[in-house]
Design goal:
mainly alpha; DNA-binding; MerR-type_HTH_dom; transcription regulation; MerR family transcriptional regulator
């Protein structure tokens, strides 16, 4: 059984010109020719073409493909093993690429979906995602992070304005409380600490009291958080940490 160059081109999804070129360079010489000189390809030729197209798909130059196929020390089993190894490596690479694309798609779906102008309108000169990469590295595999991203992706400019207004109002009231000398374990301070916890739970992710305690410690130990809260009123970060602890004790005491 033999096939014309047109038939083989159709089988393999290549052009007739490509098959002519392979013949001219000796890479795939048809095993038969008609009396009129037309190329005819047998089953062995088709097997070789399959091998050629496989290596070409992997990016091998034609001269290297020829060297691989014409290696007298290589047998069919060796070629199959090599193809399996190359395919496995290609699949792994493609999977990584697909994962990277999927991650990029998710990143575009989630987070703060505002134009640069809207961000400035809501947050001023503060970048709300300044530490987004660090946050993802530290908590990216947690459900709390995923939930925060999902919620943030749904908020409009007006939603962010309302959230920011609540933060500003809370900060003013807490700063006034510290200025008035209210103790962290006082009712007013604990109530504002509870409001702080509920704000995060309402807009980002659920914050149990033990998690809120951890946040309080971070507000003091991490200089960036400490600077943020102390900018509202010197000493506010430590005051808030202590109020958070007192509030947690109040709600979790048996």
């Amino acid at each position: 059984m033999s096939y014309s160059v047109g038939q083989v081109a159709g089988f393999a999804g290549v052009t007739v010109r490509t098959l002519h070129h392979y013949d001219e360079i000796g890479l795939l010489v048809p095993s038969e020719r008609t009396y009129a000189g037309h190329r005819r390809y047998g089953d062995a030729d088709l097997d070789r073409l399959q091998q050629i197209l496989f290596y070409r798909e992997l990016g091998f130059p034609l001269d290297e493909v020829a060297a691989l196929l014409d290696d007298p020390d290589a047998d069919t089993r060796a070629h199959l093993r090599r193809q399996h190894e190359l395919l496995t490596a290609r699949i792994e690479k493609l999977q990584k690429m697909a994962a990277a694309v999927e991650h990029a798609m998710e990143a575009r779906k989630m987070g703060i979906n505002l134009t640069p102008e809207e961000r400035f309108e809501v947050f001023g000169d503060k970048d709300p995602e300044q530490y987004a990469e660090e946050v993802e590295q530290r908590w990216g595999d947690t459900e709390a992070y995923a939930e925060s991203q999902r919620r943030a992706a749904t908020y409009s400019k007006e939603d962010w304005k309302r959230i920011q207004a609540e933060v500003d109002d809370w900060g003013e009231r807490y700063a006034a409380l510290v200025a008035a000398g209210e103790q962290p374990a006082g009712e007013a301070a604990m109530d504002l600490a509870e409001e702080h916890r509920q704000h995060i739970s309402r807009y980002y992710f659920e914050v149990p009291y033990e998690m809120h305690r951890c946040f309080g410690e971070m507000y003091v130990s991490d200089e960036r958080f400490k600077a943020f809260y102390d900018s509202m009123r010197p000493g506010l970060a430590e005051h808030l940490r202590d109020a958070i602890v007192a509030n947690a004790d109040r709600h979790t005491a048996s």
